[in-house]
Amino acid sequence: MLDFFSPAGVLGLVALGMGGYYSCRRYIEGCRVKVIVADAKTSLIVRQTTDTGTVTLRDILYAECPSLTDPRQALMVPTPYLATGLLQTIYATMRVRLYDRNSDVTYERNMFVMKDGATVSLDWYPSIEGKGPIALLLSGVGGSSQEHHIRAMAKSLVTRFKGGGGFRVVVVNHRGTARTPITSPRPYDSGFTDDLRTVVGHVRAANADSKLIGIGFSMGANVLTKYIGEEGASCTLACAVAVCCPFDIRVSSSAINQSNLLNNYVFQPAVMRTLLRAIKRAEHLTTDPSWDLDMTRISRAKRLWELEEELLVKTSGYRDLDEYYERSGSVSYVDNISIPFLAINSLDDRITPPQGIPLA
């Protein structure tokens, strides 16, 4: 039995403590935020201060966002029992319907009908009418305004910035989500920006004096990023934030469809239940015969790629799954973005891995 008060015991405790200390330091170093931003000469000019002076996006980032740029604060150290991307994803999935003091919001809803007859619901918090800036939120695949992180973000944007005028928040629910009536057989997909474009035009027309910003999560981040890239210099959003954007849909789809604990028992079942439920709700609608859908295969689908191949590829008019991945990703549109844009990704994200981030 080791005597902790003997020289050997003391040395053992010291070695154990030093090992723990350096392991902890190494772990924290791995949690540092890495900011990739244009240099001072090429950064986007946000405003002119004098005849020759300017303020760039880089200037604002380093002056106003110490949690991203200050070495003393730019750390994302997770809760010890949620130290990996896998555990965090499982935890977030389990809490998706949680209501607590950080997310107890009550929305005010209005419906918007698209050109093809589809219905999109807009959930506003705290109300549709009002003044001040508007934050437009988009959730991930199968998600909606009812998810915990969306409600928590909505409440935070309204309450945390209340002293400075406060935001109004509008959550754009994808077709068929959040109990929105399904009035068109055409579903949404990872690169479908038509609905967002219509909604932005509608919100902008009704709130001409308000700044409008976009915040997207996961698939919603890809839709938002692709949209602002498509719009280019004509984009009417003041700025945009993409959280966990997949960018390259082929990379994220490969990760999502791998056979592992997270996909087999958490992510795939949750997403597939939501999507198949929406498909069942649309059974009363007549589909376009040219789509040539195999409804048996769709109803029996177990993996997301099966739905993508049989439903999304055909209803979107793509040749095959490869073309769908190629044309749906926002990676090809990033260079055309002309508004202030912040993308936040995690290097250990199991759903949107870093291999898809366009860093070059």
Question: Can you walk through the features of this model?
Answer:
This protein has 360 residues and is of the alpha/beta class. The protein has twelve helices and nine strands. Strands 3-4-6-5-7-8-9 form a seven-stranded mixed sheet, with helices on both faces. It has a two-stranded antiparallel ribbon with strand order 1-2. The chain is globular, with a radius of gyration of 23 Å.
Quick overview of this protein structure:
The protein has helices at 7-29, 57-64, 66-69, 85-94, 148-159, 194-206, 219-231, 249-256, 261-281, 295-299, 304-316, 321-328; strands at 45-48, 54-56, 108-113, 119-125, 134-138, 168-172, 212-217, 239-243, 341-344. Helix content is 38%, strand content 12%. Strands 3-4-6-5-7-8-9 form a 7-stranded mixed beta sheet, sandwiched between helices. The chain has a two-stranded antiparallel ribbon with strand order 1-2.
